[in-house]
Amino acid sequence: MAVAGLSRRKRTMAVDSHSEELDDRPAYLKFFPNSSIVVKDTHLGVLLGRNWISRRIAYTNEVIAFAKVGEQTLLDVIPLADVTSIEPMQNSEPKDTENSPSENAFEIAVDNFNAMQIRTKKDGYNAGRKYHLQASSAEELADILSELRLLTTTAVRRAETNSKWSKLQERFRLVYNSSWFQGIAAFLIIANFVVSVAEAQIDPLRLQLPDGSPTFIKRNLDLLNVAFTVIFTFELLANLFSNWLQPFLSNSWSVFDAIIVSMSLIVLGPLDFPVSILRALRVVGLL
């Protein structure tokens, strides 16, 4: 019974994980940003080949988004956390570079006035691609450089923090989904139910003294109930942390477990509720 329930639980979690992988890109990598979150929405030249093409450029706290002028369809996007540098390009007039051995020949083959270069991570979303943007004036270029550098610094720091959190979360997930952890959880659920059955078979006179105080057996049964509740609470927290938040809420067994644990915690207080019913419901999760 426990093995079958454990398998079903793991299959449910596997299906949820697979559905996430179908398109796990955040919205800012799929759609042009909404005006409510845009820091600046302007028109800049984008170097395509040897020509500056006017494009709509909007940047937020997360990305630099590209679209055709007057349109909303996303053409390209640069996650700011993947930007390694944003530097102004040296002003120069177009020159004939057909016979030039310079590695930066493309930079002098076009008008580079009021232009900047954005470099991205080789292992990032843009695979190390370089972007060249041209402002309409030196003042606009200076403003955009200042804003983008500040936003990029903040985004990189935020990504580093999120990366540490994600790594810790992944470690918890591996432990939580492991066979040995789920096996221990199943054993404790069954043990909790067995204790409940045993308690139901004990003569009520052996659980309470004539003065109304609990007997030694009753006190130990209550301690076991508290211990099981604490253990299952930590198990629920481990599940919640490992699968925060949508994967947890989309798993019906996780939500069911959360309800049972919450009710168990309430029972520890002044509310009178049959504990045996909660234990029986918890075993249902293994069926």
From TrEMBL:
Query: Membrane spanning segments where?
Result: 180-202, 223-241, 253-273
Signal peptide from the UniProt entry: none
Pfam family name, one: Ion_trans
Which keywords fit this entry according to its UniProt record?
Answer: Membrane, Transmembrane, Transmembrane helix
Keyword Transmembrane helix among record annotations: yes
According to the UniProt entry, its GO molecular function terms are: voltage-gated sodium channel activity
Q: Which cellular compartments is it found in?
A: Membrane
InterPro entries associated with the record: Ion_trans_dom (IPR005821), PH_domain (IPR001849), VGCC_Ca_Na (IPR043203), Volt_channel_dom_sf (IPR027359)
Gene Ontology cellular component annotations, sorted alphabetically: voltage-gated sodium channel complex
Q: How does it sit in the membrane?
A: Multi-pass membrane protein
Cite the PH domain residue spans from the record.
Answer: 40-153
Protein name as it appears in the record: PH domain-containing protein
